[in-house]
Fold:
Amino acid sequence: MLESLFEHRSNKYELIFFDNIHSIKFSPFLLNLKNYIPKEHFEPYESGIATTSCVRDNKWVGLPINIDVTFLYYNDAYLNKYKKPVPKTWEELLKIGKYIQDQEKNNNNTDFLAYNGLFSRSEIGTCSLIEFIYSYRKSLKAPIPELQSEESIEALEMIKKIKNEIASDQFFQEMEVFSGSYINSGKFLFAKFWYMPLLIHYNFTNLPGREEGLSGSVIGGYNLGINKYTNDKHRDAAITAFRFITSKEMQKKLVLENQEIISAIPSIYEDEDVCLKYNCEVFKNLQLVTRPTDKFRDYDDYSEKYRDWIYEFLYGNKTAAEVLKKIDDLTKYIILKSIQKIHYLKFSSRLRFLSNDFWIISVVGSCIIMSSLYTELEKVTYSKCHIKPILLCIGYTLNLVPIACKLIVNFPEENKISVWVSKHRYSFLLIFLLIDLSENLLLYITPYEIEKNTNINGEIFQFSTFSFSNYLFLYAIKIIIYYIKDDKKEETQIILKIQEQFQNSTHSCQNSSDINSDFSMRSDKSNNTYRVSKVLETSTGLQKLLKFHNKEYI
Structure:
């Protein structure tokens, strides 16, 4: 419904309540509250999760009305019976759960659940995975571990270990209704569940972590924003209502009057009135994390793939490293995915510099450039040595020539070149591609040579060598010098001199300098010979290049 309203730029509703996972999705259609509300109003929220769940591109697009969090519920009856403490780490939960489960089995209690997990094939499954991985971060202030990090792999392996030793595939995949009924029946030891004040018979605490003091809980809940299409007449009233609903005073009142509401303002759980009614320590120690809604515009699709692929490890035979790499690769297609943005109306004003076809060509060029890195993997081969420069040449041409084409067309003064390029854009691009093709075909005249070398540590490595391009460079210089001189006699002397340096490349730089001086003394004879001396001032650099060709390598 909200998508339809925003697409039609409807101003039917001023205040918008939306699920916090859609903050990015709806942010273009909501007011930047910083421009209308004093910064003092946001300060109570800034020390909490709101800066992550409500700020997009440095804009406050909303504020939380209520957040949902998960806790670890525990059955005191079993813990007291076996004199076991409430676990602070996942290892402790596994150890205590396994011990009590074995004891209950010995007492013929077969209808006993040590831990539910909530790793179902719904959104709660994604939440359970994210918060478990978050609880395995290195320190309290550290962000959620990268997908392919050791911490993420250890977290998934611990989940599977808990499932295999104190639960089962069936229990772990059950929905929330099943877990709720099991908690109400009292046939459980530990259970992860959303905050439910109705479960008054059981205590709850923060979820365990990799180490004591670490935890994690994914947030749910709803944010409140203001429709940016609201007309001026109603906007002021909407802002007033927004400030009233999201004020600290109103949030405190909502928490006191409704036990199901958890505020996103951390300081509320330091209030004496609130702490008389709630266990404030548990709420103050919450370590909240948001879901990765910024990975894709369609978060629901990403979430489904995220949990389904991890479940290939949890309930299947794949390794944790394999499935995490598979998920991480989802974000590697972001360059190709960005091509779609040229069709979005909201991006069109920022993408007018190039036409759609040239934007696509430029992005494809970027992909080709990056793909050249694959030629550096594994063993060095002749084909890889030839493919890499081809990919780089074509990639840079496709990436940069569209921009160069536009710059030439937009030249301040109209000229024949800009007019021709404007009418023959693809011909202009084709010229550069043909040059790339011609240059790379020349590389096949003298193929690369693959050589081996050993470093000081005795390690053997391979590299490819190719010097034909340097010979082309030298002979190109000779041809240029030959045709730009008027005095053929002086030009012949220059060429002979270069040939002599080519044959005696072991001469020192000092000899080269003497030669330069000798030629420079004759520069006063005429303007032509002066130009000759200027050319030969660079003979030291040429000599070094010639010396490189004649140098012998072992």
About this structure: The longest helix spans residues 382-409.
